[in-house]
Amino acid sequence: MRSPVVFIDGDQGTTGLQIHERLRNRTDISLLTLAAAERRDARRRAQAINACDIAILCLPDAAAREAVGAIVNPTVRVIDASSAHRTQPDWVYGFPEISPGQAERIASAHRVTNPGCYPTGAIALLLPLVRAGLIPADYPISIHAVSGYSGRGRAGVEEHEGPGAANAPSFQVYGLELAHKHTPEIQQHAGLAQRPLFVPAYGAFRQGIVLTVPLELRLLAPDVDGPALHACLVRHYAEAAHVRVLPLHESSLSPRLDPQALNGTNDVHLSVFHNAEHRQVLLSAVFDNLGKGASGAAVQNLDLMLARA
């Protein structure tokens, strides 16, 4: 019996390179990549994607749509790491832990869209709490996140690791037009009735994310407090292999959050910080933007799909 053929289209970007690194020594699949001279050849790329069992697209949005449009082989399955299809109803959202049965839906899907890096943290925190009714769907959600510079792709890596690295900024807030492309994805998959306010930033470290969501308890139901929010997250992720909700006392005593703490893993740590006196709560997520936020999640979804190959 032949091994499933996995084609990485766009394996020279930051996500594609890490997916290739995670897969290159595996013996249960045949890895298909294109030589440098063939990567810009639309005919050769179309041949490759139609010759594989599962394609992983690590491309800009327009190129990802083009690649999907080139598929004529009905047996080809796709994991798209771009944001091109994340709000499309005919694509399965590739976040296995968000709800019961989601891993099974991914396993049997023909079209899977990998979550964005920032949405991974925001949705992991918000969706269980919104579904449980602890946070109203119309709550005015604000999200702040800081990512490593690899989140900008090769341009970010070149700026901080190339010849001009000495002049690279140590910190920069962006998305100030309040129209970041991840915002509709967060709203849809977190079950929010209103568009959240999302403010992202880059730090002078290669990879890792810390994402926070502040909550005012006075705007929630009288019986909702930090322990109640924490207990809900604990219940939701009790069986999740890659999502850990830190103990409430650990969250309360931790003096800082390190965005690089989970680099190189496919894990995400969620925390609930609460101040009973001031009736304020801070939700946080820490994970690797190139791990659970990109390549790690893609490989996790690939493994689910291979189980049904």
Automatic annotation (TrEMBL):
Residues annotated as domain Semialdehyde dehydrogenase NAD-binding: 5-106
Cell compartments where the protein resides: Cytoplasm
NCBIfam families: argC_other
A cellular component annotation (GO) from this entry: cytoplasm
Top class in the EC scheme: oxidoreductase
Coiled-coil stretches: none
Stated family: Belongs to the NAGSA dehydrogenase family. Type 2 subfamily.
Statement: the UniProt record of this protein carries the keyword Amino-acid biosynthesis: yes
Protein name per Swiss-Prot or TrEMBL: N-acetyl-gamma-glutamyl-phosphate reductase
Single GO BP term: L-arginine biosynthetic process
Lineage of source species: Bacteria, Pseudomonadati, Pseudomonadota, Betaproteobacteria, Burkholderiales
Protein task: Catalyzes the NADPH-dependent reduction of N-acetyl-5-glutamyl phosphate to yield N-acetyl-L-glutamate 5-semialdehyde.
Pathway(s) annotated for this protein in UniProt: Amino-acid biosynthesis; L-arginine biosynthesis; N(2)-acetyl-L-ornithine from L-glutamate: step 3/4
Organism of this sequence: Achromobacter aloeverae
Recorded GO MF terms: N-acetyl-gamma-glutamyl-phosphate reductase activity; NAD binding
Underlying gene: argC
Source taxon at top rank: Bacteria
